[in-house]
Predict the structure.
Amino acid sequence: MPLSSNGEPAVVDESSPLLRKKNNNNKVLYFTKKDGSSWSTPSLWSSRSSSSNSSRHNKDIQHSIMSGSNNTEPRRRSSSIVVVSLPRELQELAEALDRQDKKKTTTKNSSSNNDGGDHELILDNGMVIERQSPWATALEMFKYAYSTLLWLLSLILITAAILQEQTVSNLPHPLLTLAVFGFLIAWLSMMEGGQGCLVGLQPIDKESYRTSHPLTFQNTTLAHKGDNLERFIVGRQFLVVLVVFGTNLLAGTVEDATVLGLPSTMIQIALDSGLALMMITISTGQLMSQTNSSDCMLDLINNRFMLVMVTHVSLAIEWSGLLHAVYAVKYIFTQCFTADAPQQPESTTAPRTTAQQVFFVARTMFSVALLALAWAVTLAALFQGQTDAWDGLPAWASVVLFLGLMAVVGFLEGLQIALFAAINLTDDELKAQSPHAHHNCQLVFEGQNLAAFLIGRQIVVTICMFVVARITTISLEEGHANLWGVSDGLQDFFNTGLLGALITAIHASLIWRVIASAAPFVFLSSPLTTMLIRLCLAVEQSGLCSVAWILARAQKFVFQFHPDHEYLGDGGDDDDDDDDDRYGPQRR
C-alpha cells in the first residue's frame, strides 16, 4: 500500500481510476501513480485550488501528479494517471489526460529507449507542467537566459534612447518622457492582470475577503454589479490599445538615431524595428501580471491604482459612448446567428427607461460617426504617405499591411472566444459541427497547448498592434499642408493616434469577439485557424518572452503577493468532506 509524505497509508479504491488520499485536516491532496502492482511515494507541489461557487474549492491545496510508463517516450505522459481527492475541475482535467494518453499509447510502438525512469506531471495554477528530461530542462534554462538578456538589452537601449533624446516624444524633457513611459507600462500591467483577477474572482464570496482586502472588495463589487464586467472589458480594451499607441509615441526612435555609439545595424534591428519596445511591453506590461493574476488575485488588485485608473477609467470610457458602435454590430450578429450562438447568461441590469434608451442610441450614433471619421482620416494619411510607416514602403503596401494585420489581430481575438465556447463540447458534438473545428480543438486542447496558445497569441497580437500603431500614427512632413486643410488644433488631434486606437480597438478586437460569441464555428472551421494556432504555439515555444516568469516572481516578492488560498482558508466543514467528495468526475 502506498504511503503519503507524512507516513500515513493512502486510501485506495482499486475499482476507481481516480483515487484519493486525505490527511487528517483535509487540506492536502496527494497524487500518486500506479505502476503495475507497486506504488510510489508521492511528491508535493504548492498550488491553489480551482475557484468555484462551492466553498470546498477554497482550500489550502498542495498537490502533484505522478505518472510513468515503461512504454512511453521521455517527454510523453503515460496512460496511467491516478488522482487523489481532487476538486471536480481538476478531476476532469486528469481524467481527460488519462483518456487522451491511452488513445496515444495504443497507436505507438510499445518499444522505447526509455530507461524505465518516471517523469512527473504537476498541476500548478491550473496548468499542467511536466517534469522534463535533462536535455529539455537545459533547453528551458537556455530560453530563460537568452530571454532575460534580450530583456535587459531592450531596457538599456530604450532608456538610453529616451535620455539621449533619440525618440519621437514631444514632451519637454527626457526625464519626463522616461517617467511617463514607465507609468504607461505599469498602467498596462495593472490592466492586463486586473482583468484576469476580476473575472477569476466572480464565483468567490466577497465577504470572505472584505476585511482582509478592502480595495479588492471595492473593485469586485463595482465590476460585478449588473453588466459592469462586460462594460469594463469593452472600455479596458480601448485603454490597452491606447497605452500601446502611447508607448510607441514616446519610445519610437527618430530617423538615423544614434544610441550609446552602437552600430547603425544594431540600432535598426533593436530600436527602429520596435523589437526592444515590444519586448519590454509584452514581458513587463502584459505577461508578468497575467502570470501572477492566476493565483494572487486578491493581492494584485488590492490597491487604489487598480480601482481608480483601471476599473473606474474603463467604465468611464465605455459610458462615454466612444465604443458603442460595437453594440450595434453585436445586435446585428446576435439576430443573424441566434441559433448558433452559445447560451448567454441573462442580464442582471434592469431594462432601460425611454430616456436611457434615447441616450444609448445617441451614443451609438456618435460612435459610428466618429469611427467613420477615424477611417477617413487614417486612410487619407496612409494614401498620402503621411504616417510613421517605414521609409520605402509604398502607400498601397501600407494600406494592405494595415488591413492584413487588423484581420490577423481580430481573428486571434475571436478565436480565443470561440475556443472557450467549444471547450466543454464532446468530440461527437464537435465533429457534428465541423471536422475542421474538431481537428483545431484537438490541436489546442492537447496537453499544455491551450496555455501555450494563449501566451503565443498574446505575443502575436501585441506585435501586430505595435506595427499597426506605427503605420497609423499620422506624422506630417515639415512644411506639408494639414490633411484636408483643417486647422492646426484639429491636425494636432489627428496626430495623437487616438483615431488609430479607436479603429484598432473596435475593428481589430471587439467586433471580432462579438462575431465569435455569436458564431464560434465560423472561426473554428476556418483553414486559417490551424495556421494561426501553429504560429502562436511556435512563438511561445521560442521562449522569446520567458523572462516574464522571472519578472512575475520578482513582482510577487517585491509587493509581497500571496496565493489566494492563504486568505480564503477552508471555507467549509471538513467533517462533511467524506460525504461530499466524489472519486470520479461528472461527464459533460
Notes: The beta strands are 34-35, 38-39, 46-48, 60-62, 65-67, 119-124, 127-130. Confidence is low (pLDDT under 50) at residues 1-94, 99-130, 570-588. The CA atoms of residues 59 and 305 lie 29 Å apart. The longest strand covers residues 119-124.
